[in-house]
Amino acid sequence: MIAKVRDLVQRNLLVKVISLLTAIVLWLVVMNDQNPSIENNYTIPIIVEDVPSGYKITYSDDHVRIRVKGPRSNFVDHDSSDFKARLSLADLKEGSHDVKVEVLCPQGFDLLEVTPPSIAVFMDPFMEKQFRADLTLTGSPANGKTVADIEKDNAMVTVVGPKSAVDTVESVVGYIGLTGNEEDFDLTVPLKALDEDGNEVGNIRIHPASTQVHVTLARGLSKKIVKVNPVLGNVAPGYQVRKVIVVPAQVEIAGDEKVIGKLDSIWTETIPLEGTDDIKRTVRLQVPAGVTITNPEVVVSVDIEPVGQKAKAADPAAKADK
């Protein structure tokens, strides 16, 4: 019996093997024709993971475009929601980073291309910084009236926001309208953060966002325009002051004629210059007794340079002339 089976199997063995291989090839050809491998493109959202706290995070893109390949039947069973694009922010610190996008595909798909392959990520830490709440008067009170004093609840405020925004804040100001006022008055003054060009800085918060002020008006006070003189500290050894700019260079003072008649200028608080870098700082004025100033603060810019820098700069030109 076994011999008959063996003889049956071995009879025309080569022909049988060739027939089996031919059948397999034909099956593969037929299946490939019925379910061919094709390509397709999808645009999918990026899932951000491992997000650290304490940062404002911005991304160059929030979607990626992928090109995948697989049997046609797979595209019938799956859509774009089955593909995932992940971006891990683990261990990222302050600054700019180029982070690779990881794409997960359902089984049976081959990932051919990811556009863009990586995402630019900017990590901007949140910070806070204190500023004086400066008040600026606009308009004029009724005829014969002068601002004698301004009291405010909040001398200092805190600016909170991304470091890149807070670093641009030069001052925090509020505006008090005086037009037509005849009597003392109270007012809630909203505060704004301004950069060095006087533009309002966005993407920050001020705490408190406003201050209560009491404005005292007086009659019979004289007014006068006087020069502002900056008081500078000592510069670092080997350095000198090249230029000083005060804004405003003059201020209006008010008070009894006997008091302000003796004043031709007013001085700032001392501005320390221990460092070697140029500075730009808001400083208060030294207001004498019996004198009022609507805005007792000015901005002083000081340019500092090494001693003898101008002479050194002239040497190459002098040699060239020779």
Notes on the protein architecture:
The protein is an alpha+beta fold and 322 residues long. 18% of the residues lie in helices and 52% in strands. The longest helix is centred in the first third of the chain and has 22 residues, at 13-34. The chain is elongated. The termini are far apart.
Care to give the gist of this entry?
This protein is 18% helix and 52% strand. The chain is built from six helices and 22 strands.
List the helices and strands and how they pair.
Layout (H helix, E strand, L loop, with lengths): L1 H9 L2 H22 L2 E13 L5 E5 L3 E9 H6 L6 E5 L6 E6 L1 E3 L5 E6 L2 E21 L6 E8 L3 E7 H4 L4 E7 L7 E6 L1 E3 L10 E3 L2 E10 L2 E14 L3 E9 L2 E6 L1 H4 L4 E9 L5 E6 L6 E3 L3 E10 L2 H13 L1
Parallel strand pairs: 1-4, 8-11, 16-19
Antiparallel strand pairs: 1-3, 2-8, 3-7, 4-6, 5-8, 8-10, 9-15, 10-14, 11-13, 12-15, 16-18, 17-22, 18-21, 20-22
Structural descriptors:
alpha+beta, single chain, disordered C terminus, 7-stranded mixed β-sheet, 18% helix
Distance between the termini: 120 Å
Indicate the overall shape. Answer: elongated
- Percent strand equals over 45%
Rounded mean pLDDT score: 86
Q: Report on the biggest sheet.
A: 7 strands, mixed
What is the number of strand segments? 22
Secondary-structure-derived class: alpha+beta
Number of helices: 6
Uncertain ranges? 311-322
Helix and strand pattern: HHEEEHEEEEEEEHEEEEEEEEHEEEEH
Evaluate the radius of gyration.
38 Å
Helix content: 10-25%
